[in-house]
Amino acid sequence: MNLNELYQEVILDHGRKPRNFRLLPMATHTAEGHNPLCGDQIHLMLSVRNGTIEEATFDGCGCAISTASASLMTEAIKGQKVEDAEVLFRQFQEAIVANGDTEPLGVLECLIGVKEYPTRVKCATLAWHALRAALESEEKSATISTETGEVIPHA
Amino acid sequence: MTALLDALRDQFPVLDQTVHGKRLVYLDNAATVQRPLPVLHAMDTFYRESNANVHRGVHLLSQRATDQFEAARVTISRFINARFSHEIIFTKGCTEAINLVAHSWGGANLRPGDEVLLSHGEHHANIVPWQLIAERTGAVIRPIPLHDSGELDLEALRAMLSDRVKLVGVKHVCNALGTIHPIEEIVRMAKSVGALVLVDGAQSLANVDVDVQALGVDFYSMSGHKAYGPMGVGALYGREELLNAMPPYQGGGDMIRTVSFEKTTFNDLPNKFEPGTPNVAGVIGLAAALDWVAGLDSASIKAHKQSLLDHATEELNRIEGVKIIGTAAQKAPVVSFVTDFAHPHDLGTIFDQHGVAIRAGHHCCMPLMKRFGVPGTARASFAVYNTNQDIIVLIEALRAAREIFA
Fold first, then answer.
1. Among B101, B176, B385, B406, which residue has the fewest nearby CB atoms (within 10 Å)?
2. What local confidence, expressed as pLDDT, does residue A4 receive?
3. Could you tell me the residue ranges of all domains in chain B?
4. Is the CB of residue B328 less than 8 Å from the CB of residue B150?
């Protein structure tokens, strides 16, 4: 695998011009995703109504991979049922660690190449862990670390 | 210099390999330096010929191991010009050396309202131990500001000094930016209010001359693996009277004189602070590393490293969108930078594909990164074996990254 396969045009585009990169004042669920090894920080904001994710936005700072992943993820989950977003989280997670065939992921496939770069897998999954933390937490906001994987509800 | 450099590089077998099909260009020396053959040989020989526990057995091998272990202590004490070899306490690294001071000296001496001043640029290893002890003692930690160059703001330090200040902690050489801090001057200022000075010397032994008596420091922590020695070994220098007055940090065998369930009495220096079986091979490897460093032509090595730093700085400044963080007049061969086209982490991956190993991130200096308003930097750090060709490859890799992202 060469660098052009890792840094595909879709990733570069979303890394440079992330979609849904803004605050969401009416958020019902938020989570802070943090990778203490590199300092990447993503603040995910969701507006969930009647079991549907009506809006998904994020801000924070990170590398091209983590920014693109967050951007693509917010696009993918917007308008989805919470259960479907949870399924997508699991499929994405499986695809990025698995060696064999996994469910097709559409545009998100461009992120799967990162599995050839083990030190960067956490960059691609940071936003997704934040998604799971936001949806699972009983509280309005939560924090997730790539190093512990535990969801810590905010006091 | 070229012939000298070739001979020198031959001493580092790990450099002779390719990564991702490219020649390895190892520029992560501030994280850990590679080890030369004499260090590998010294450790191997110890395990092959002398391995036994120290300070315990009456048998020949134990005596031999003890002799080599204590000879290493003398080597290190001479290398930094300590007054006595028992002022050297072996630890598992620089971090443990600082923890020892924070917990033993800090735990016994800090009172509520006492102040510990630490430079804003300290490594987490010289911040967190003090936070832990401050929580227990009620002492207060105050950061000493830095100039935009990365140099310590000495005027600000002067204004912060008072009789509440009990200790000033600063690193000699900044791992993240390369800044060499003026320790003698800091010590003079701290002494004027009776404060002790702890210097984090993690990056020092490979990069600057260290004379603890001339510097006037009270504590000096050292790392083995950043000085061409093995990982898992380091040392603390402490002034004899301070170490004598300090309570033990950890308890165990070898640090005691007598033990009963009613009362235990402790051993003298340095054993009082060295419970348990030490990293004997590591200590012997560290001494071999310092002997190796001492055997180099110090003036030409210094000139070589300065020219690498100058060359890298000049080349990086010529690339549009690159900004060097840390522009102090006195720097170790470390160049930390950010770009307006790629995140340091992405640079690290691209460089790796070119065979170039650098560090990307916050370098365990999160307050320092915040001070400069960056999430992290890309850092190239050089050792004696690096060459101008290495810098050319680094710059090519950076141009390739610019191609991808800009």
1. B406
2. 77
3. 2-30+297-405, 41-294
4. yes
Give the helix/strand (H/E) hosting B196.
Answer: strand B196-200
Cis ω on the peptide bond leading into residue B270 (within 30° of 0)? yes
| Chain B residues whose beta carbon lies within 8 Å of the beta carbon of residue A119 | 349
Q: Write down the CATH number for the domain with range B2-30+297-405.
A: 3.90.1150.10
**CB contacts < 8 A (A, B):** 51
Residue of A nearest to B351 (CA): A3
What confidence score (pLDDT) does residue B338 get?
Answer: 97
For residue B284, count other CB atoms closer than 10 A to its CB.
26
Tokens of B64: 């031999």
Domain positions in chain A are 3-135
Are A3 and B345 a contacting pair at CB < 8 A?
Answer: no
Any residues with CB less than 8 A from the CB of B182 and at least 6 apart, and which?
Answer: B152, B154, B330
Among B68-77, B192-201, B246-255, whose mean pLDDT is lowest? B246-255
Contacts of A123 in chain B (CB under 8 A): 345
Is A63 close to B345, i.e. CB distance below 8 A?
yes
Q: What is the pLDDT of residues B172-182, one digit of tens each?
A: 999 999 999 99
Please write down the long-range contacts of B185-189, taking CB distance under 8 Å and 24 or more positions apart: B185/B154, B186/B152, B186/B154, B186/B157, B187/B215, B187/B216, B187/B217, B188/B216, B189/B154, B189/B157, B189/B158, B189/B161
Query: What CA–CA distance (Å, rounded) separates B152 from B248?
Result: 33
Nearest Cβ partner of B362 from A2, A15, A39?
A: A39
Tokens representing residue B75 in the block: 């080597």
Q: In Å, how far are A26, A51, A55, B95 from A81, measured between CA atoms?
A: 18, 6, 11, 49
Q: Verify whether residue B174 is a known catalytic residue.
A: no
The rounded mean pLDDT for chain B is 96
Residue stretches of chain A with pLDDT short of 50: 154-155
Q: Are B228 and B292 in contact (CB under 8 A)?
A: yes
Least CB–CB distance from A3: residue in B353, B362, B376: B353
What pLDDT is recorded for position B342? 95
- What confidence score (pLDDT) does residue A147 get? 67
Q: For residue B113, what are its two tokens?
A: 């309202």
What is the total residue count of chain A?
Answer: 155
Strand order, beta sheet including B322-325: B322-325, B334-339, B377-381, B359-361
Q: What is the pLDDT of residues B19-28, one digit of tens each?
A: 999 999 999 9
Structure tokens at A74: 């917010």
Q: Are A76 and A108 in contact (CB under 8 A)?
A: yes
Nearest CA in chain B to A119: B349
What local confidence, expressed as pLDDT, does residue A155 receive? 35
Is pLDDT of B165 > 60? yes
B345 touches A at CB < 8 Å: yes
Instruction: Judge: A65–B345 Cβ closer than 8 Å, yes or no.
Output: yes
CATH assignment of A3-135, among 2.60.120.10, 1.20.1250.20, 3.60.20.20, 3.90.1010.10: 3.90.1010.10
Q: Residue B377 and residue B326: Cα distance in Å, rounded?
A: 11
A119 inside 8 A of chain B by CB: yes
| H helix intervals, B183-328 | 183-191, 212-215, 240-245, 280-294, 298-317
